[in-house]
Amino acid sequence: MPEPILEVKELVKHYPLTQGILFKRQIGAVRAVDGVSFGLHQGETLGIVGESGCGKSTVAKMLVNLERPTSGTISYKGEDITRLPARALKAVRRNIQMVFQDPYTSLNPRMTVGDIIGEPYEIHPEVAPKGDRRRKVQELLDVVGLNPEYINRYPHQFSGGQRQRIGIARGLALRPEVIVADEPVSALDVSVQAQVVNLLERLQDEFSLSYVFIAHDLSIVRHISDRVGVMYLGRIVETGTDTEIYEHPTHPYTQALLSAVPVPDPRARAIRERIILSGDVPSPANPPSGCRFRTRCWKAQERCAVEVPPLAVPQWFPSGPRAHPSACHFAAEKRVVPVTAPPPSPPPAAPPPAAPPTGLPGEERPPGDR
Amino acid sequence: MLLEVRDLHVEFTTRDGVAKAVNGVDYSVDAGETLAVLGESGSGKSVTAQAVMGILDMPPGRIAGGEILFKGKDLLTMREEERRRIRGAEMAMIFQDALSSLNPVLSVGAQLGEMYEVHRGLSRKVARAKAVELMDRVKIPAARQRVGDYPHQFSGGMRQRIMIAMALALEPSLIIADEPTTALDVTVQAQVMDLLAELQRELNMGLILITHDLGVVADVADKIAVMYAGRIVESAPVHEIYAAPAHPYTRGLLDSIPRLDQKGQELYAIKGLPPNLLHIPPGCAFNPRCPMAQPVCRTDVPPLYEVTESPVPRTTACHFWKECLHA
Questions:
Q1: What angle do CA A209, A212, A216 make, to 5 degrees?
Q2: φ, ψ (nearest 5 deg) of residue B114
Q3: Would the CB atoms of A222 and B263 count as touching at under 8 Å?
Q4: ipTM exceeding 0.95?
Q5: pLDDT tens by residue, A287-333
Q6: Which residues of chain A neighbour B236 with C-beta distances below 8 Å?
Q7: Is the dihedral of CA A217, B225, B80, B164 positive or negative?
Q8: Residue A223 to residue B274, Cβ atoms within 8 A
């Protein structure tokens, strides 16, 4: 495999907790990100999923250098960008751009669309000479499916989906190679989400972009991603291709997360098994010892409180789709996503636990099934 | 029938003109039944619920027509005093954002107890004990110790449980839940929806669940009403609508869900944008975005066609529902 375009190693971000006003003492730290490693290849989409507070947005901010990591490295084409001098950093930043979640707050209401999309050229004037900028901005508007004549309008004149297109156009302005998209569709209406997802996929093909796609909507992540990393309390607990993660999850948290996602098919009620986790995510200021998931895990043993499980391929899965990195001492496959009609060609190994629905499903529910 | 909304119209006077938020909505829910009202932002799903609860901001809002029958009595012609006795005691609402719906300067115990003090005339002490009972009921751990805590000291999921507790305090026969889990993470969403379903069964309540999430609907609803531009465009039992939608908007929503076998392909997307309520298109409001639109759709508002009659009637507001059903 060729060298990844972006490689993250042991990335850590701790926010200090201080006490006192004049003489601040550090009394602890919020461990927002605590040792995250992954690679991103050219033209690939890496999906990062997890619940709020798991650190996925902090990772995104560090990738585009909006936050400085406490430790660890982020290498862009082999060069560590966390320790670059300002001038070199500015050049690298051009190549890694971000699309934000909320299209209502991430666009300056006093700037016209043309100014918003053209602003990156003020900072990197070498990309577009002054006389050329208006034309470039209009081209970008066209690329993201907006009327180029809207260049002098203000953000409030657009709908949510259109605003997100403006945000995407701004991200594309400098012709980056990597785009970090932090929840780019979650603020949009259902019927508009699909439009924006299609746009992102089309742009990826057109400009051979690499995406880090952060979201909590697991079905959209699956649709767009080549590989997926699941985060919990500042760490990646499981990573693999989309099929490995969704069809053959081996970490209990991934299994619980997948099983909790409502399936948009009422026939699934009768056949799906849901794992309802108890309690809430512990505070990242005081994470549990050993495995961080152990306080909510049904498999937890004494060993889990002592030993931190490494993110590695479990030895007992030598090959096949189950052999992907999973940070659990007791990693075991459990299929939780029901196969809904029309079924994809089923993998030969690991038969699904329940037969596909037949007849009038939903009427016969096994007792005790909720 | 526990609740029956008939031909409800709601308008808002704005600086730019009259926005028709609800244009003739009919729906009903029975005891023990779950009706999901599905729609995007601006479809009128929350405004309808606010009209039912009687918490619509008037002005600028105005109920321009229709009736809301609760246990056979029209809420809209009722005296305000009478209505206040029903609100909270017989029907209650759960809001999306628990943090902004709870009072930040009162302990949760005081807020829960208030229900009993105001509606039942209980003393503060007894009301407090009742509040602890309620918190136990919605499975808040260590209820006795936490009854004096303030809303900000609870996590999002726990706050939503407190909202549910408050709604259930007087054991109403109807609960309206407006996007109750939208702000929550999926694992917590599952806990909260489970709790709601369990309590609904226990108390045999009618539940109106307002949501935009097709997954949540498929999980819990008995029947669905799909709203678009202030109208119910399709209403049907849950299994039938997912198996074969009879309105192109419903079909579009279902088709835009990413499916396994579509990986790498373009997602189906409904083109265009939801209409501006100040200028709802003539004819069928969905016609500018509809792949099946014909000239008649631009001129004639489709009536509600009956698709099937029994056991639960199924209706759709599309001139070409037969084509859609068999597409």
A1: 135
A2: -55, -35
A3: yes
A4: no
A5: 899 999 999 999 888 999 999 999 999 888 888 888 899 999 998 88
A6: none
A7: negative
A8: no
